[in-house]
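ok here's GAF domain-containing protein:
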Amino acid sequence: MTRPTPDPDLTQLAFDELGRMSFAEHSLESVLQKVTDLAARVLPGDPVTSVTIVSQGRSSTVAASDPLARDLDLVQYAQGSGPCLQAATTGVLAELLDTGSDPRWGSFPQVAADRGCRGVFSFPLPPQELISGGLNVYARSPRPLDEETRRVAARFAAYAVVPVSNMYLYETAVERAEHLRSALDSRAVIDQAKGILMERHKWPADQAFSALAQLSMETNRKVRDIAEEFVTTGELPSA
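and the structure:
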């Protein structure tokens, strides 16, 4: 059960816990779950959270603590406006204190109200090259959010975006490194197969690669897989 008003002691403990979060202990999803758990502990409104990322003109939700948060993100993406998009693209906190009376953002406030969301805070992530984003806090309170809740929520989000942003960038860097490693492995086995063909048939490099590429098209298999089988067995697969 959420508290009727933010408790200063609980709030500070939550901030301290956010500051102690480490990459070694968490994934992006577990970071967001921790943020949500702490938000529910210190904020009124039974909040759920999500993270919006905007990259190359496309918006996506990379993590959400509850289907409601993801669904409300998608409503805003579909209509091209809403607090989560405004925060992510402008770098400024976007607030929707009462979905039942705010005329901004088209049909979104009414949709949110119909889904049981009474208020929204969308706090921008620290700006990064090529991407921008925001941490979205959806309050499911039966009452509009008051000024004290707004102040604490904004402060909470300011603390929370740091581990969320860092974890997102860390996981993105790891994913890129894995893709690079896979690409390098593919190149190595393809070069090895080319070398065998060049030695065996006295072919130039481009002819050896063309033979692998032609088999790839005829068998509907990746060039890397063709090359790996050839290196392992010494025989090219039949078309």
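+1. The mean pLDDT is 81.
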